[in-house]
């Protein structure tokens, strides 16, 4: 069985298992107690280096404390390899310093069973990509035994996202499955511009307005192009897919659990920042 070994351990997060677990526990302690009372269906969490975004990610993952899931579907953007549609890791393991996590092959194959096929099954896309990997240590600390379905999404349109959401719904319906959309928010504007644009994006997400996200992002990037705004949501397709899938699975509430940007970190620079949001979708 193939094992996808860590690509960013020691850079995005500590490579030592004890240091890694202690860092995550510290983030979770600072985030406080869970606040979502209903059936938790999906989360959005950032995927930057933990020194920048780990504190925000903890606000999503604290909601898993005391909950039980058999499978976690993780939707991340592909930063390095061009993908036509999406790619799914259908069998094997993902490894972190905290251990190996098996892939739910049955569910992965169900998601791939659309007609016509919507997914590219090539595994090489996953070898360097960090967007899925950085979510895993948080899951390993907050959940007990679980499987994963890693999915990378390329630059595609809303119709593809709807189709993928439909396949996720069919595969996950009636099971104890959580969806995680891995995404950072605004990239490289000054601190105040990031706060403004990310507030607008989070409002659309909270209103389940997946249809408006892409157009709104394009408008904001045009408006603030001179301010170095390069993207509003780097995992846009995964977030759109998650909104559609979560809604089909019964989610009717979305809470913004936390927002910050890299300028809020002691390691950050307010002149050019990346935004991070934590969101929970629940019934």
UniProtKB/TrEMBL annotation:
InterPro entries noted in UniProt: MEMO1_fam (IPR002737)
Pfam family, one: Memo
Family the UniProt entry places it in: Belongs to the MEMO1 family.
Protein known as: MEMO1 family protein A2161_10855
